[in-house]
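Let's sit down with a protein and look at its sequence and fold side by side. Which protein we use is up to you, so please pick one and set it down. Label the sequence line and the structure token line clearly, so we can match residues to local backbone shapes. Go ahead whenever you are ready, and we will take it from there:

***
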Amino acid sequence: MSNGSALFILLVVILQPSSAFAYIDPNAGGLLFQLLAPIFAGILGAWVFMRKVIAGFFRGIWRKLTGKAVQ
């Protein structure tokens, strides 16, 4: 048996459709939202409080690189 035919047989076996008895809860989206919303709110809140510090940090780097003050 050549490598090509062995690969073909392997692909046929792997790609055979099979029945799947699965159920996704209708409220799975709600659970995902409950997990991701506080994380997003925390990141957004940290950005709001830290934006001046972050901007000052990059402004200082820019001043050192260019040798001039940024208005």
